[in-house]
Design brief:
Layout lengths: L6 E18 L4 E14 L2 E7 L4 H14 L7 H11 L8 H21 L3 H5 L5 E8 L6 H13 L5 E5 L7 H12 L3 E5 L6 H12 L3 E5 L7 H10 L5 E4 L6 H9 L5 E4 L6 H14 L4 E3 L3 H10 L3 E7 H10 E2 L8 E3 L9 E2 L1 H4 L5
Parallel strand pairs: 4-5, 4-11, 5-6, 6-7, 7-8, 8-9, 9-10, 10-11
Antiparallel strand pairs: 1-2, 2-3, 4-13, 12-14
Helix pairs in contact: 1-2, 1-3, 2-3, 3-10, 5-6, 7-8, 9-10
């Protein structure tokens, strides 16, 4: 469909979905996940976007951001992205506002692709048919039995060649927990994530222990705000352990700073935080310019189309909470086959909210 197609409606709702068990990582504990879903309508077609963000993002999307997109052409997504970024200047463009923009932007791209009748991967130009995944969970709140069962199942049933566990809540326990993980996954690659819990020296000590269990990925050993600390750790990591971070990059400037600091071997990008698909593609282009590979952080169903198109994409995080939510609440959510996920033939991202099923979680 050529020409301008005015956006008739933009709505947003927040849902709070309890976890299936208490969860924790190196710095935080939680028992529920909040999902903000945005619906945009133009020409009789609906586009859906979402973010795992604070419920306040729904109010920003339906109020502040709606005024920037209603009546505008659904074909002009990058222009609307610019308008939304300018609009949140005084409230701050990161955090909750970034989650709101992310949800609206992904809805607008889904809407545009639906109007044209193409999948998003085809609209952007697909580089690959399927994208590898890695199983992610292994929360510090799990006992050894649950840790082993979860990680082992991803390898045995989903064909994952790699799995990731949380570390850092109690460093005295991590050698035992990594041994449990290694025994459960056999020859699969083991990845660890501190969620910024360590000091630089503590992180390097953790890495020495992890090397003995074949770990080849250390995520957020220190807070991502400490670029010097990340660069120091990256330079000092033993063996072939990669330093990964980027999930808290809220836009292209944050990504540029990480890359310029030479702080990561693999850049994580999160379309639910980094200003949607538009921000993701910009971040991926920056990473390509620095010859740094990328990995999508969580939200696997949402990330599948953009990871089919993005350069230097290694894999998508098959994150336990989001896999469960997306399977429960969205038709079209992918299922793994031989450690990878692929899309069907539907237009857009191929995901449709199960509104009746979601209603019981509405805030």
């Amino acid at each position: 469909m050529a020409g301008a197609v005015p956006i008739d409606a933009l709505e947003a709702r927040a849902y709070r979905i309890p976890t299936d068990a208490p969860e924790a990582d190196g710095t935080l504990e939680w028992d529920a996940t909040t999902l903000v879903v945005v619906t945009a309508v133009a020409g009789g077609v609906r586009g859906t976007g979402y973010a795992y963000a604070d419920a306040g993002a729904a109010a920003i999307a339906a109020g502040t951001l709606a005024g920037e997109v209603l009546g505008e052409s659904a074909m002009d997504v990058p222009r609307l992205w610019d308008r939304m970024r300018r609009r949140v200047r005084n409230m701050g463009s990161s955090g909750v506002a970034a989650g709101a923009i992310s949800a609206v932007d992904t809805a607008l791209w889904d809407l545009k692709a639906g109007l044209i009748g193409l999948s998003l991967a085809d609209l952007w130009g697909a580089r690959r048919e399927a994208v590898p995944i890695y199983g992610s969970g292994g929360f510090t709140s799990y006992d050894d039995a649950r840790l082993a069962e979860q990680l082992g199942r991803w390898v045995a049933e989903d064909g994952c060649a790699r799995v990731k566990m949380k570390v850092g809540a109690d460093r005295r326990l991590e050698e035992r927990r990594m041994r449990v993980a290694r025994e459960a996954i056999g020859e699969a690659a083991l990845m660890i994530d501190s969620n910024g819990a360590c000091t630089p020296r503590e992180a390097l000590a953790m890495a020495e222990v992890a090397l003995g269990f074949g770990v080849d990925w250390y995520e957020e050993p220190v807070t991502s705000d400490d670029l010097d600390g990340l660069a120091y750790i990256r330079a000092g990591l033993p063996g072939a352990i990669d330093c990964a971070a980027g999930e808290y990059a809220y836009g292209p400037h944050d990504v540029r700073r990480l890359l310029e600091a030479r702080a990561v071997d693999c850049l994580q990008i999160d379309a639910t935080r980094c200003l949607g698909y538009t921000g993701f593609l910009q971040a991926a282009a920056l990473a390509e310019a620095f010859a740094v590979p990328i990995s999508a952080h969580t939200a696997p169903a949402l990330h599948l189309p953009v990871c089919r198109a993005a350069p230097l994409c290694r894999h998508i995080e098959w994150f336990h909470d989001h896999v469960r939510i997306e399977a429960m609440l969205f038709d079209g959510a992918p299922t793994p086959k031989a450690g990878a996920i692929a899309m069907g033939d539907a237009a857009g991202h191929g995901l449709t909210l199960k509104a009746k099923d979601a209603e019981r979680f509405a805030l």
